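TODO from last week: model Flagellar protein FlgJ N-terminal domain-containing protein.
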Amino acid sequence: MSIGGLPPVDAAQLPADIRDAPPVRRDTYSAALGFEQMLVQQLTTQMAESARSAMGGDSPYASMLPQTLADGVMDAGGLGLARQMTDAIAPAKKETTT
């Protein structure tokens, strides 16, 4: 599943309630996950630049740090923003009992 320029999201990695949700909710979650990935990468890039400035130098591995850290955060479940954004944009339909 891929949305306009965002990397594809493996459906097996989606939470069960998102996998079983209507297409609009699944697409919203995928887009929110792509946004969260970009945000985490930007944050880690800024952190790495701050660390380089504080240390006064460049390491040959410094350029790899932001992406590696961002990948680690996302592989561990991210920050939870994708879920919150999905619930706000395309809330799950609640079953009514009568």
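Done. Residues 13-89 form one domain.
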